Here is the input.
Amino acid sequence: MGCNVESVPVLAVDPGREKCGVALLAPDGAVLIQRVVPTGQLADMIGALAAEHEPTVIMGNGTTSAAAKERVEMLGCSVLLVDEYRTTDAAKEAYWTANPPRGWRRLVPRGMLVPPVPVDDFVAVILAQRFLAKQNA
Here is the structure.
């Protein structure tokens, strides 16, 4: 599981202490799955997705990445750590693009708005998109 070949899906994880972002992208970049899951459920979700899709598994190198990587590798998946520099800022912008502000919030610059929900899933999508862009460069 978790081979490094182009033309396989990419399973990206944004690890965190309490919650993790998970995204599965097709080789062409189409988002197949995008979720925020409790950290305690991460291994089960990754195991199920890896068994079904045989993806390349990548993980952001930030908060708790070493522990999360170890748990996922115990499932038999190899995990590539990738740089997650400024992905949270990009994820907030992606959230507002997908969910445009309404009412008075549309008058506030997006950079000043705080999404009402966690954006860890958007971070995972951005990690996967960056990884695919490097693979196709």
In short: The first strand starts at residue 10 and ends at 14.
